[in-house]
UniProtKB/TrEMBL annotation:
This is Ig-like domain-containing protein. Residues 1-24 form the signal peptide. Residues 7-109 form the Ig-like domain. It comes from the Bacteria. Keywords: Signal. It comes from Actinokineospora cianjurensis.
Amino acid sequence: MRRALTPLALAAVAVATALSPAAAASSVTVNCDSGGSQFVCTVGYSGASNATIRWYLNGSALPWLNDTSSTGRISCTGGQGFTVSATVTDANGPATGSASYYCNPGDWP
């Protein structure tokens, strides 16, 4: 009886492992700087190098930035806050990082 349970137990573990959700792209970090009523953000992440990147500003998609690791300089209204987020998707699924910043009308830091 014991021999019959061992292969069955191993099969159950294999099925459970196969059905467990895979970990998404690990941590995603968004960093921005602002000056001259503009901002620039970069995304950092660990995971597959062939991941896709999608950028959002205050919840609205920025499709022209798809798959770039930096936004380049984007105009913003001095004195107002904004939230930038990036969703990175690799073979294990999506992960999102975001940060809120102040649009600096003055000099770059």
